[in-house]
Structures are given as C-alpha cells and as structure tokens.
C-alpha cells in the first residue's frame, strides 16, 4: 500500500475533487487505504487502529456526519471506469446485508440473498458496468420496505431525505438510477438482470421507453403466445360496445413453448472460458408474444387505449437454454433485440451476470462492503461510495497499471 500511495493520492484527488474541504479529501484517502489493507474487519475502529494516520473519531465523522454528496464521486468513478472497461452490458442486481436489530436504515425481515432465506437485513439495488474481463458498480440505492416508508418519523430519525421516503419497488429504483446515469451522459449498451426484474412488465416497458436494449432472465412460468398467433375479432352483435379482439387460444407457459421446439433445434454455444474449461451449452432463439395481465395492459396503453387497440400483442425475442443431459429446457431470457441478433451475442450478454458475483465477493470479502456499522442513510451511502472507489482503483490497476492517470 505504501508503494501505491502516490498513485492512490492522484486517484483520490480526481474522484474526490467534488468534496469542498481538504480534510474531507484527506480522510477519504485514509478510508480507502483502510479498506484495501489486510484485516478481517473493515469497520471504522479496526481500520483506524491499523492505519498509521488513522483517527477513529475523524473517520467516524467523515463517514456518518460530514455532509458531502456521494453522487459526484460516483459520477467520476462511473466516467473513469466506463472508459477503462468499455462495458458490453450494464447489470442490474440487488444485494443484501444481514443485520441485527431494527435501527439500521432500511433493515427489515425480507428475503436475504446472502442467506438464501427471509431474514433481518438491508437490501440495495446496484448498477454495474461489465465485460468478461472487468466490472465495477456505477450506482447504488438503498431499498426501503413499506414498513419504513409507512413511518416517516422513523425514516427521518435515520436521516432519509424527504424525496426518498415514498416507497419504490426495486425495479423503480433501478430505472431511477439509469436516469441518473443518463444525466451523467452515460448510456447502457445492453441492460442485463435476473428474473426478479425480467418478470416485471413495467420494468421492461420502462427500459423500452428509454430506448434501452435488454436481455433479462425470465422464469419458465411466464405466459405467452407463439409468434404466429393472431387475434380474432368476433362479429359485432349490434348491441352494446364492439367486442374486443382476442386470441382464440389461451397463452401458454414459455417452458411449454420452448419444449415443443425440440432438442434438435438447439445449437451449441460457448460463451467464455471458465476455470475448468469452456462454458458451453445448447441454445435456441424463439419469437413470442408475452401475454400476462400486465403485458395486456401495457399493449392496450401503447395501442391508444383498450377500445382502440388492435389486439396484437408485441413480439419479443426469447433465448432458451437446454443443457446436455437435461430432459427439458432450464433457462429463459426475454429481449427486445431482434430475433436475428446472433445467438452467441445474446448468450454472452445473458451469461455476463457472473461478473457481478465476482464484484460482490471482492466488495464484501475483500473491501468490507457489508462491514458498515452505522445506522443512517447518509453513512450507508457514504460507505458504499468509498468501497466502490476502492474497488475502482484496484480494477484500474488490474486492467492497466497506467490507467490511474485521469483523462
């Protein structure tokens, strides 16, 4: 760390340039060094004890009370890392932090991915820039369950700003962060997310309204019509409003539509080199017409309203995986990219979420993302911004030893 201190100082001066005071930038650099030093715990007290210039009270004040804005810091990190990584996708994901007690901002009994069950935890939504060779978070937002937003006084005690007190689903937080990144003049190449986001019709519609391409995981239970299905408008009986057009057959699960294709229509695709050799499986691309209730409402709205809609559900591309040795397909992804998109590209983008698991391992186990012991909204967002900065510095060093030099 001493050998890299000069390079780290240049990095800190650049990404923390928005901090108004010199002492804030100093403690920002000190906190980053504490995160990157060896040590089991990366909370403030043990870091201060390990650092030769550590001061627990000063670091505590810098992270938990100092009013610096983390967004300009994240913006500078996002600009530098986007230029260095040249991402193929932006991955939207959420991460959980198991917690004891009820005072930490956003903590509630909810599904905790870190434990694989419902537990007391915080949950945050994140956007990452990624290729197979590198990735880095671009933005974060802490999720507030309804039990928090239904108690404004509790939110205010934890320092939640007024504009964040209203409850927002995770997919809305994700769209909001994409809007923030667009305001920073950054645009997603292709948006990738797991089925928790892929099954959300409003989320997919929000991406399309923003002109963004996506490849989103889907469950096999989602229903759709085959591409060739056409709606039928019954003859008008002369009484009441005209009968609306409808499909003659009910929609079917995408797992059933995919299985009917037959294993012979699937092509073997290798998407990357794994630690044990090439990552290979069989895939095919279908065109479907998503037909759930929310898909129907979205199509009617886009068609000018229920009574003016022509009844045609929009077509979307479905990527299906059917691994060797399996009796049925096992993986599904929905995309608004044309079905003529090379299957190898769709597969590579769909599978690139693995990089985010690498991010989380490094952020949590190496840099103490989940070691923060404060309780406030400000402190949490300051901490994750500083951890992101530490990972960004290390990522730039890995990609190119000279990449620490700002543009």
TrEMBL record:
InterPro entries: IS701-like, IS701-like_DDE_dom, RNaseH-like_sf. Pfam families: DDE_5. Residues 15-278 form the Transposase IS701-like DDE domain. PANTHER family: TRANSPOSASE (PTHR33627:SF1). This is Transposase IS701-like DDE domain-containing protein. The lineage of its organism: Bacteria, Bacillati, Actinomycetota, Actinomycetes, Kitasatosporales.
């Amino acid at each position: 760390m001493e050998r890299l201190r000069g390079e780290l100082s240049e990095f800190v001066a650049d990404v923390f340039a928005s901090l108004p005071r010199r002492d804030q930038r100093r403690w920002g650099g000190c906190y980053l060094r504490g995160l990157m030093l060896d040590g089991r715990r990366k909370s403030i007290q043990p870091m201060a004890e390990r650092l030769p210039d550590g001061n627990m009270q000063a670091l505590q004040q810098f992270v938990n009370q100092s009013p610096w804005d983390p967004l300009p810091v994240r913006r500078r990190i996002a600009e530098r890392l986007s230029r260095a990584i040249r991402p193929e996708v932006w991955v939207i994901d959420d991460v959980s932090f198991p917690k004891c007690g009820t005072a930490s901002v956003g903590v509630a009994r909810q599904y905790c991915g870190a434990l694989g069950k419902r537990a007391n935890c915080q949950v945050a939504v994140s956007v990452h820039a990624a290729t197979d060779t590198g990735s880095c978070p671009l933005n974060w937002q802490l999720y507030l369950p309804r039990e928090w937003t239904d108690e404004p006084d509790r939110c205010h005690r934890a320092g939640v700003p007024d504009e964040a007190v209203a409850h927002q689903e995770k997919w809305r937080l994700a769209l909001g962060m994409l809007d923030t990144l667009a305001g920073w003049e950054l645009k997603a190449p292709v948006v990738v997310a797991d089925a928790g986001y892929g099954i959300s019709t409003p989320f997919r519609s929000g991406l399309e309204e923003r002109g963004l391409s996506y490849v989103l995981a889907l469950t096999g239970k989602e229903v759709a019509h085959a591409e060739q299905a056409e709606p039928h408008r019954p003859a008008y009986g002369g009484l009441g409003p005209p009968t609306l057009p409808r499909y003659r057959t009910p929609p079917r699960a995408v797992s059933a539509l995919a299985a009917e294709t037959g294993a012979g229509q699937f092509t073997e695709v290798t998407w990357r080199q794994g630690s044990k050799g090439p990552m290979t499986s069989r895939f095919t691309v279908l065109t479907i017409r998503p037909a759930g209730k929310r898909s129907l409402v979205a199509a009617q709205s886009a068609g000018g309203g229920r009574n003016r809609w022509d009844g045609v559900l929009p077509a979307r591309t479905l990527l299906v995986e059917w691994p060797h040795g399996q009796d049925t397909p096992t993986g599904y992804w929905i995309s608004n990219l044309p079905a003529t998109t090379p299957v190898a590209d769709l597969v590579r983008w769909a599978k690139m979420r693995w990089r985010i698991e690498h991010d989380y391992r490094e952020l949590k186990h190496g840099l103490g993302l989940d070691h923060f012991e404060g309780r406030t909204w400000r402190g949490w967002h300051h901490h994750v911004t500083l951890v992101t900065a530490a990972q960004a510095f290390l990522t730039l060093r890995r990609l190119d030893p000279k990449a620490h030099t700002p543009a």
